[in-house]
Known about the structure:
Elements: E1 8-17, E2 22-27, E3 40-43, E4 46-53, E5 57-62, H1 64-69, E6 80-85, E7 104-113, E8 118-123, E9 137-140, E10 143-151, E11 162-167, H2 169-174, E12 185-189, H3 192-202
Antiparallel strand pairs: 1-2, 1-6, 2-5, 3-4, 3-6, 4-5, 7-8, 7-12, 8-11, 9-10, 9-12, 10-11
Amino acid sequence: MFTGIVEELGTVAAIDRGTDSAVLRITGPLVVSDAVHGASIAVNGVCLTVTEHDDSSFAVDVMAESLRRSSLGALCPGDRVNLERAMPADGRFGGHVVQGHVDGTAVIVSRTPGDRWETLELTLPPKLAAYVVEKGSITVDGVSLTIATVTDAGLDDRSNHRFSVSLIPTTLALTTLGRKGVGDSVNLEVDVIAKYVERLLTRGRVCDASTLEEVS
């Protein structure tokens, strides 16, 4: 599990593309400082498993499902990526519950600068719109953010859903979101709690005393 607090900006050193998979080699001295084989590292919000590492870089396998749902397939050598190690059991919860399981991608529609901050407006895939609420949490390229506004286009024009987030100076300086431009794609992970609530309600399986089995 992660919290959406990026620890380091890494660099894609090499990509070995297969038919429906890829192997990424990423430079990130901080996140590999205590890495072991099998460790989890989020790369632009995608939880990946370390298969090999040295003092400054690590390799990960990216399977077809991850390539299909995320923007990792568009990476090129030299691209910067957000990196976060899995949170230890005694770690601080700086962001929100992030699984590293990307739900889809969005496109940056606009960047509006403020005094020392910026507002990003992004497209909102229709299938994710129900989980995105004003002042709720969302993960954008692995960064835990608070949703500032949601524009619901209505049932007649679902392709034009939008949401916005505000980026503080630290986020602009220390993550890829400070470098992304209009038209760039980013990974989204919505609040997993919202997905579980929807599943329980739509399946009619709201738990009560009569549905619990006695455990002896």
